[in-house]
Structures are given as structure tokens and as C-alpha cells.
Amino acid sequence: MSNQAIHRHTLTVRIAHWVNVLCLTVLLMSGLQIFNAHPALYIGKQSDFDHPILSIAAEERNARLVGVTNLAGTSFTTTGILMPTPAFPHDHVMPYSARHIEIEGKEYPYFDQLVWPEIATTPGLPATAVPIGGSETGLPIGVRIVGPYLEDRTTIAFAELMEREFGGFVPPPGYAG
Fold it and tell me: How many angstroms separate the CA atoms of 107 and 109, rounded?
């Protein structure tokens, strides 16, 4: 074994690193809900109040508000998203952590699906679900319409048009009541 010294950060720096790890863990586990209060993330010297590493905002473009996400200096529009959402058999196993959902023959933790509502709720965008038909097994399929900031009526009006085109909700066999 060599007598070479190994450099370690001071105790204060190591504690600060672990506090950062803890804070980021809590942030991620909370579903990034902190963005509802302040929609920006800063990391070290690479960012400051005017230049966050990650930000979620609404910006006025062509006299309309659009959702914009900025990641490390790259901006992309996050307005007007359609997300198909098929129904699935529910898993009522206890405890909750033991529940799973099968997607294309592969099992996933049941609560992984909760990330999808975050697409609209984290930046505060309106979302409306509308039925568009049924699957081969008879379960309903819907589309979630995510619209521009403060344009709830736009997503509702679009849902009404889609419902008119696709015929609206039809209860699956055995569930009509």
C-alpha cells in the first residue's frame, strides 16, 4: 500500500454536498411540485437568477401565451399536447408499493403512471380528458388535451369538438348502469 495522501473535501463541503443530494431527492420525490411556487432550478455557478438551469414558464408569442420549458439554455414549446390514454384493469393489491401495471407485456410499478398528469400540473396548464373510443378488450380510450396557460376554455372547446367527432363516452360491456 502506498503512503500517498488522498485529498478529501472539508467536512463543511461534504455536508453541503449531502444537503444538495437530500434536497434534490425530496424535489424529485415530490413530483417537482416546487415548480408551482417558483418554476426555476439553479445549480452551482452554472446558473443564476436570470439564467436558471431549468425553468418552466408561459411566454407571450404572437399575442398568445404559450408554455415554454428552458433546459440549459435550450427552449422548447410545451403548449398543445395530446396524450392518448387507454383504460387498464386496476390493481387493488396491498400495500400500494406492490401494485403493478402491465404495458405491452411488461410490468411497471403502478404509480409510475402518475408522471403523466405532471406534464400539465407542474407548469399550471389546463388539461381536459375526452373519450375517443374503445380498445380491443372493450375498455375506453381517451385523449388528454393540454392547452396554453389560462386557456381552460380552449381545451374544453376542443374536447367538445373531439367528443362530437368520436361519439363521446360509451360504457364498457358489463359497466353500463
Answer: 7
Concatenate the DSSP letters of all residues of 140-159 into one string.
EEEEEEE-STT-HHHHHHHH
**Core vs surface per residue 158-168: b (16+ CB within 10 A) or e:** bbeebeeebee
Residue 136 in 3-state DSSP? Answer: coil
The predicted model gives 28-47 an average pLDDT of: 65
Q: Can you give the three-state secondary structure of 36-90, one letter per residue?
A: HCCCEECCHHHCECCECCEEEEEEEECCEEEEEEEECCEEEECCCEEEEEECCCC
Domain residue spans of the chain:
80-167
Pick 63 or 128 by higher pLDDT: 128
Contact 116, 83 (CB under 8 A): yes
Q: What confidence tens digit (pLDDT) does each residue in 1-18 have?
A: 567 766 677 888 788 888
The tens digit of pLDDT for each residue in 58-117 reads 777 777 667 777 777 777 666 555 566 667 777 787 887 888 887 777 888 877 777 777
Cα–Cα dist 13/150, whole Å: 43
Q: What is the pTM of this model?
A: 0.47
Region label for 150, one of left (φ > 0), alpha (ψ between -120 and 50) or beta (otherwise): left
Query: What strands, in cross-sheet order, belong to the sheet with 54-61?
Result: 40-41, 54-61, 64-71, 74-77
